[in-house]
UniProtKB/TrEMBL annotation, chains A, B, C, D:
This is Diaminobutyrate--2-oxoglutarate transaminase. The lineage of its organism: Bacteria, Pseudomonadati, Pseudomonadota, Gammaproteobacteria, Pseudomonadales. Keywords: Aminotransferase, Pyridoxal phosphate, Transferase. Belongs to the class-III pyridoxal-phosphate-dependent aminotransferase family. GO terms for molecular function: diaminobutyrate-2-oxoglutarate transaminase activity; diaminobutyrate-pyruvate transaminase activity; pyridoxal phosphate binding. GO terms for biological process: ectoine biosynthetic process. Pathway: Amine and polyamine biosynthesis; ectoine biosynthesis; L-ectoine from L-aspartate 4-semialdehyde: step 1/3. CDD domains: OAT_like. InterPro entries: Aminotrans_3, Aminotrans_3_PPA_site, Dat, Ectoine_EctB, PyrdxlP-dep_Trfase, PyrdxlP-dep_Trfase_major, PyrdxlP-dep_Trfase_small.
Amino acid sequence: MNTFEQFEKNESDIRSYCRSFPVVFKQARGAELVTREGKSYIDFLAGAGTLNYGHNNPILKKALIQYLEDDGITHGLDMYSDAKERFLETFNRVILEPRGLGAYKVQFSGPTGANSVEAALKLARKVTGRSNVISFTNGFHGCTIGALSVTGNGHHRGAAGVPLSEVSRMPYANYFGDKVNTIAMMDKMLSDPSSGIDKPAAVIVEVVQGEGGLNTASADWMRKLEKLCRKHEMLLIVDDIQAGCGRTGTFFSFEEMGIKPDIITLSKSLSGFGLPFAIVVMRNELDQWEPGEHNGTFRGNNHAFVTAAAALENFWADDTFAKSVQAKGKRIADGMQKIVRKHGPDSLYVKGRGMMLGINCPDGDTAAAICKEAFANGLVIETSGNHSQVVKCLCPLTITEEQIDKALTILDAAFAKVLGDQVANQAS
Amino acid sequence: MNTFEQFEKNESDIRSYCRSFPVVFKQARGAELVTREGKSYIDFLAGAGTLNYGHNNPILKKALIQYLEDDGITHGLDMYSDAKERFLETFNRVILEPRGLGAYKVQFSGPTGANSVEAALKLARKVTGRSNVISFTNGFHGCTIGALSVTGNGHHRGAAGVPLSEVSRMPYANYFGDKVNTIAMMDKMLSDPSSGIDKPAAVIVEVVQGEGGLNTASADWMRKLEKLCRKHEMLLIVDDIQAGCGRTGTFFSFEEMGIKPDIITLSKSLSGFGLPFAIVVMRNELDQWEPGEHNGTFRGNNHAFVTAAAALENFWADDTFAKSVQAKGKRIADGMQKIVRKHGPDSLYVKGRGMMLGINCPDGDTAAAICKEAFANGLVIETSGNHSQVVKCLCPLTITEEQIDKALTILDAAFAKVLGDQVANQAS
Amino acid sequence: MNTFEQFEKNESDIRSYCRSFPVVFKQARGAELVTREGKSYIDFLAGAGTLNYGHNNPILKKALIQYLEDDGITHGLDMYSDAKERFLETFNRVILEPRGLGAYKVQFSGPTGANSVEAALKLARKVTGRSNVISFTNGFHGCTIGALSVTGNGHHRGAAGVPLSEVSRMPYANYFGDKVNTIAMMDKMLSDPSSGIDKPAAVIVEVVQGEGGLNTASADWMRKLEKLCRKHEMLLIVDDIQAGCGRTGTFFSFEEMGIKPDIITLSKSLSGFGLPFAIVVMRNELDQWEPGEHNGTFRGNNHAFVTAAAALENFWADDTFAKSVQAKGKRIADGMQKIVRKHGPDSLYVKGRGMMLGINCPDGDTAAAICKEAFANGLVIETSGNHSQVVKCLCPLTITEEQIDKALTILDAAFAKVLGDQVANQAS
Amino acid sequence: MNTFEQFEKNESDIRSYCRSFPVVFKQARGAELVTREGKSYIDFLAGAGTLNYGHNNPILKKALIQYLEDDGITHGLDMYSDAKERFLETFNRVILEPRGLGAYKVQFSGPTGANSVEAALKLARKVTGRSNVISFTNGFHGCTIGALSVTGNGHHRGAAGVPLSEVSRMPYANYFGDKVNTIAMMDKMLSDPSSGIDKPAAVIVEVVQGEGGLNTASADWMRKLEKLCRKHEMLLIVDDIQAGCGRTGTFFSFEEMGIKPDIITLSKSLSGFGLPFAIVVMRNELDQWEPGEHNGTFRGNNHAFVTAAAALENFWADDTFAKSVQAKGKRIADGMQKIVRKHGPDSLYVKGRGMMLGINCPDGDTAAAICKEAFANGLVIETSGNHSQVVKCLCPLTITEEQIDKALTILDAAFAKVLGDQVANQAS
């Protein structure tokens, strides 16, 4: 049997990341992935933002093993459990209260980001009695039908098989360039009773569009968006699934912008350990759910409660971690700027914020070739963006400076190789 | 702070099971749940069918701790991992091959049942190019919009906030009683070009309707349904999320019926440990997915791969376990029949199959009162059904005979108390 | 230029009736159509039920010419006009009041049946705040998207291009034969909170399904349906577009059944002259429209008001006309029974009610061949039904007995020829 | 009985124009409406653009009376009739051929504009296999569900009762002012595979938005729109229901712009006499309809064929009429400019094109007051626009110069009175 025969024979052709990284991974620690054969890779993908604290973080791992050894509840539906209480208490004390969000409540939706988006949309529609929702160009919110309806990606939308309705698509910040005020555009359409845009229940937005290509919304744009929501009585849903949990240098991606979303969705790095976990955080007064209206089997993933509480306690009790993220973000951005200046000052540019960064390439083929070359040299890295043209760096926030530098060196070489080859090809 | 204050203050009012079981659980072993205060309960709910092998099964637990200690990959998107390969190999060898399903493939959808239903519906619509789907009265398939559209439950449907479209609802087996052939009805409507039922992509069906109240489809009905699917070129999707993984006495609920579904969804007890995990199993030739068309962050929950492989190996390598399930199922059914004969031969009856059993009460209030009384006496048990009128026994398949008997004794007393009180009230 | 070249060159291929009757008609009087070449045909199609009072009825024609000569308003949007007032007064006095419907109001929707159906559905949804609607197998209500969603015909549904949603399809009276009570079925599903049938705003039903193949609902079934509507707080919409205006022997098709629909749609023969005209008749208290909520350019077709008022006055002021319709209906039915007994007592049967009658053939090809043969001999007649298997007799209600007899003779010969040829073919 | 009692008692409250013009009209000739009491009004509403050739045009009236006296076919479903052939021949010879549209075909949809829009959308979706359609802010296309989905008006949309889906709403020409290129915006979104705008089947556009407030698209914008359609393989549907039939000074509103729509809808003034009539005109190769796929009872309104053919022959055989329309349009525009300069150079401005003109007022209340005052002085005139803020002049194209001048004098006085009163009120 060849290395991948089992997968090729038994797993659906839908598998995709494995096509970019044709090895079988076995172990992982911090920012490092190790194959079955023992080959080691620096992880600049980090579970697409799910492993902010690295693989198998020892503190979290210890807590989880202890919990297992104690026969702690693993699966608890939405029953009360000791582990859930601890998570709630920690999340409230460490995250919500210090950020002025003490009066928010937590819904344990199903354990996926898509599920928390589905729950958030349902709640917004229920509370407002409206069905239309505004979502943005290049937004990504998940692949279940409700979440997919607000997602922009055509590849995913094309597989829906049913109409994706009750959504008005609007241009994201700077979608039409710096000079076009997309908030004013929305305001005009929403203020016009004959624009054809039915009054929305909510706006759902990512502060940094991870899958969409690391497009960022400025604090100013977000504040105007919040005002727009107030003016037109729409709820503001921030999908912080990828950009949250510290990725941008603060726990929430929006917390230094002076806004208060009505609803926040969190998942990915929330468990801190890569375990499926998602929540909806909502203003107290929006909690108009009836018991059990939105349910699901895995709402009570207690392992995730355990590692999440440990992660919050360990990383967010003071601002040490946040500051280190900001510093590392700067280190990576600087390194990327160097690459850009060196290899393609006219055709390349850096995108993103915090440790959610990427280099925009002229096209998807170039970006793919760079990632492939980097992988050959020991770096797991992927693309994102509407044309898959952005080489996206999403390493664990706990990565060391040495690992960052090593990864950037690999990346630099990959850009040199690929862009150099292109020049050579054009010349020939 | 009172016992539940943290939850009441910070958790959304949507929480529901905790309202029936107002205690804080801390530990669990096998068929036993233990509160923070050390009080022990027999678990006749079992995570709504998620804990077929009991809480913290020692074999699975050992495998998981070992995996953690070895720094095995936890989160792997859909990259190749050692643990995934082992799961695939084991599932194929132990489950699919022996059941003549060797030519089926596995899709790792998101880790919830709802997500696997969403993926199955998308695939069926893609493959057939049609959008309508047939689902059944009292069917339950999940709460994300795609899954909710095929779910019957009005409480959940009412919270959708958007139209639930592209579904034709049909009467389940025996929905109109023994004498009405619901397959013939469907055939007539599907054969009539002006019936208004657009040609469906698929039929989605549960062989036993867990949430719907333990309604069962006979082998004969299922075979006719399969034929109907062939005749009208619809795919047959069996949602075996609750009834599968051994619950009815065989791994799949349908495997002794002589049918071969086109697509099967599995979740709940698949990981064997209560960890979020779900798959779509499909005929080889239906695997027409393009890479990444339906994706999600937690498709690669490697902890679940580890426990699932261990569970399959441990419980399904031979037929010992299946036989014990069948025997225990009989024991429970017999016990229930006794309760029925004793307390309400005219108003009560036993429903279900295998270890998926329940007693149908005259109404939901009665059933709720019985569950409440049982809980007061040490038994965690819940209702299901369209009027929540079925007292549902869904204990771990690994439960001991002693535990069964003890639970039935508690249940017997609860029926006596509640029905006795009712008689007393009516007399007064 | 050949006879049809202009049509073939300039008219869309969507044209259809002209394919069955490949001649160019020029004039028409009563039950007679005359081609450009002067050939005369008896009209057993009557504009698919639009010409109940015959072509160019002299009384109506005179009124219309007079109105034209007086420069009466032709097009009046929904402004007040003398002609509209006269129609309203006449309709109320001659039709509504004597039938106990004096407290109903009239909405002038757009001048097509489909438009009145769209308006009726909107109103029902608005008044009840629900969106689901029940419609029946083989029901036909029009081809605009709202009307099409409640129509059963697959050929028309297939051309929608968008989802036809918010409709639950139910079996019509006797759809599953005499012994299956389809009202009880609906009641069970509507009473079951988990059936998946969302609480409907309304039921829309034809008392005789014209396009569906002359299926009839009994008075008993209609009364039970009315009760079902009251029980589940659904509005009862009777689409009397084809079966109304006297076609069944009374002005409304339901008026001897002892029911009072909440909403009635009328069109086709309402103008009495073949002019586009449609109205929605509703219980007073359901008239919750805001001004202009549903509008359209041709709501005020004053020519139709003029001819409609004249028709009502002339035909419905007393019961003479109704009685003659009943008598002629019997004459036609008797004639058809003779044909059935003579040519195919085992394979043919008579369907319908009043002067809305047809002979059910074994298949659509046979029915088409019979119509073709009849046309060759001077009779314009068409098929209906889900397999186009019903030879449908829908002659003007003003047809003479001689014309009836002549038409039946032609029909008899056509059955003889076609069925005889079939026997001959089978024998050879 | 008071003057309106019959209406108030028997007609639905949905009636609307009659509220602005509380009189009962009885006769009409040319640009004049006459009440039952003999009071005469100049008609600046003209059936909302349905009476381009005036009321009861004598040539058309004569043709219709003659046809009636000859017992011509009135109602012909979609059978071949002499009158239909004559219409087709005339329309092709007089309109299509000279405009380079000889290879287009005509579909006789139901006789309302909404129905032709429904048919056009169905056809576009069928031909392209896509379901999304682009429509514009402030577009108006009708009130049946399919047509309503592309309509912008919130009042009408709000009455839908069902989701209006499969439409992407885009900003019309100049919607965001002169400096924002809305074509470039659309191009960016349509070129972006992750914009969330699913590839559209078609764009539906009005060259002048009649109900939307007389917004005009320039020739340059329309040409760019046509190019955009070609680039993204979308069909270009021009809804010329209100702006067509000569209203802008040429038969089609777009014919001097150098574009060729794929599909054109016509209705309103098409019959020339105010009779219900609508057609879909399509490129030959798009005529992929199967016989009868979209049908309706009143597709063959032969009276309308007769008057339409007469109107085309009489008004469009040479360019005399078109030139007179252009001249009258200038006369009205000049008169309006005078009103604007006199009464509100800062707050009023003239909008529109050809004889489709209006004065934009600061708000809807002002516009309504002006129309009310004008009506009191003998002028029937209405508002349009998203805030009903445009006083809209839509008189018959056959109006005399004297009538124009008289109407403008009344209008001038109404502006003086209403704006003068406002100044007085503010001062007091």
